[in-house]
C-alpha cells in the first residue's frame, strides 16, 4: 500500500508524454497495422497499393505496378493524377509532405476527390512512412517530376523538382524498418501475387502487374480482367463441375452506392461465398453479405 501511495504521489505533469507527428505510430504500430509480424509487414504494401487502386476507381489511373526489389524494397507505381504538390494552407508544407507526415490528412474526407476508398482512410500512407527505414516519393504532375525522401517518417529535404515529365502519376519506394518489424523481414511473393490478381478481378479494366526482382531472374505477372467479378467466379469454378454454364451477374447503383453480384452453381457440397467492400475482403460478412 505504501508503494502504491508513493506511485500516486509521484504521478504529475512530468509523467505525461506528448507524442508529436508520427511518433505515436512508431511507439504503438500494432494499433495502426494490427501487428509487427508478417501480416503487418505486408499491410504496408497494401496501404500504398490501395491508394493507387483508389485512383483507378475514380477513373484516373489505368495501370499499377508493384515491384519487390532486392533487399526487400517495395516499389509501387501508378499513372494517376499524382499526389498534389502545392502548399497546404493549414500546415504550410507541400500537400504531399502533409499527407505523408500528418495523420488523418488526405483527399478522402471531402467526398469530392474520391467517391470510394479502401485502406486506413487518411492515415495509411503516413503510417507506412512512419514504419519504414527510408521512404521515397516521386511525383509526375504539372509537366514536372518532383521527389522527396524520408527516414523513419522524417523528411530529409523539402520537396524538390528533379526533372520534367509528359506523364502523370506517383511512384513510392520504401524499405520496412527492421527495428519495428523484428519478426518478419521478407515479403511472400505468392501472398502478394494472389492479392494483386484479386484486385484485378475486383476492378475491371485496370491493368495490375507484379514483379519479384529478388532472384537471379525476375518473375512477373500481369493481370487485367474486362469481365470483373464475372471472370472471378469463372476462375474460382474453373476446376469444378458446373451446374449452369453461364455465370450470373447483376449490378445496381442506388444513392451513389454500387452493388455487384456474380454467382455460378457447381456440384460441390460447400458454399464458397466471398464478399468485399471497397476492395476489402470482409471475412466476417456484414449487411452487404446478408442482403
Task: Explain this structure.
With 291 residues, the protein is of the alpha+beta class. It has 9 helices and 13 strands. The protein folds into 2 domains: 204 residues, Histidine kinase-like ATPase, C-terminal domain (Heat Shock Protein 90, 2-Layer Sandwich); 55 residues, Ribosomal Protein S5, domain 2 (2-Layer Sandwich), CATH 3.30.230.10. Strands 1, 2, 3, 4, 5, 6, 7, 8 and 9 form a 9-stranded mixed sheet that branches. The longest helix has 20 residues. The mean pLDDT is 86.
The biggest sheet, with number of strands, parallel, antiparallel or mixed sense and barrel status, is: 9 strands, mixed
CATH class of the largest domain: Alpha Beta
Average pLDDT confidence is 86
CATH superfamily of the largest domain: Histidine kinase-like ATPase, C-terminal domain
- Structural class of the helix and strand makeup? alpha+beta
* CATH architecture label of the largest domain: 2-Layer Sandwich
Instruction: Find the CATH topology of the largest domain.
Output: Heat Shock Protein 90
Head-to-tail CA distance between termini: 57 Å
Shape label: globular
Low-pLDDT sequence parts: none
Layout: helices, strands, pairs:
Layout: H1 2-9, H2 23-27, H3 30-33, H4 38-57, E1 63-69, E2 73-78, H5 95-101, H6 124-130, E3 132-141, E4 144-151, E5 154-155, E6 160-164, E7 169-176, H7 189-202, E8 207-212, E9 219-223, H8 229-236, E10 248-254, E11 257-263, E12 276-277, E13 280-281, H9 287-290
Parallel strand pairs: 1-8
Antiparallel strand pairs: 1-2, 2-7, 3-4, 3-7, 4-5, 4-6, 8-9, 10-11, 12-13
Helix pairs in contact: 4-6
Amino acid at each position: 500500500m505504501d508503494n502504491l501511495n508513493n506511485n500516486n504521489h509521484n504521478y504529475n505533469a512530468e509523467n505525461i508524454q506528448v507524442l508529436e507527428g508520427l511518433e505515436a505510430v512508431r511507439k504503438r504500430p500494432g494499433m495502426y497495422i494490427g501487428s509487427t509480424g508478417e501480416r503487418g509487414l505486408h499491410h504496408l504494401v497494401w496501404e500504398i497499393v490501395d491508394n493507387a487502386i483508389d485512383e483507378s476507381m475514380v477513373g484516373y489511373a489505368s495501370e499499377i505496378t508493384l515491384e519487390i526489389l532486392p533487399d526487400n524494397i517495395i516499389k509501387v507505381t501508378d499513372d494517376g493524377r499524382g499526389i498534389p504538390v502545392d502548399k497546404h494552407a493549414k500546415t504550410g508544407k507541400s500537400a504531399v509532405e502533409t499527407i505523408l507526415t500528418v495523420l488523418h490528412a488526405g483527399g478522402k474526407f471531402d467526398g469530392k476527390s474520391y467517391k470510394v476508398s479502401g485502406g486506413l482512410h487518411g492515415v495509411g500512407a503516413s503510417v507506412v512512412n512512419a514504419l519504414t527505414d527510408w521512404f521515397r516519393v516521386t511525383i509526375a504532375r504539372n509537366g514536372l517530376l518532383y521527389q522527396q525522401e524520408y527516414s523513419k517518417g522524417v523528411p530529409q529535404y523539402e520537396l524538390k523538382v528533379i526533372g520534367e515529365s509528359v506523364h502523370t502519376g506517383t511512384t513510392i519506394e520504401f524499405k520496412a524498418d527492421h527495428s519495428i518489424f523484428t519478426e518478419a523481414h521478407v515479403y511472400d511473393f505468392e501472398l502478394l501475387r494472389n492479392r494483386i490478381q484479386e484486385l484485378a478481378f475486383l476492378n475491371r479494366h485496370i491493368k495490375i502487374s507484379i514483379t519479384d526482382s529478388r532472384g537471379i531472374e525476375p518473375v512477373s505477372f500481369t493481370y487485367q480482367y474486362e469481365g470483373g467479378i464475372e471472370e472471378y467466379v469463372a476462375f474460382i469454378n474453373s476446376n469444378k463441375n458446373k451446374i449452369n454454364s453461364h455465370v450470373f451477374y447483376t449490378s445496381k447503383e442506388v444513392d451513389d452506392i454500387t452493388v455487384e453480384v456474380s454467382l455460378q452453381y457447381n456440384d460441390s457440397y460447400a458454399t464458397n461465398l466471398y464478399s468485399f467492400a471497397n476492395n476489402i475482403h470482409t471475412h466476417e460478412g456484414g449487411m452487404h453479405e446478408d442482403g
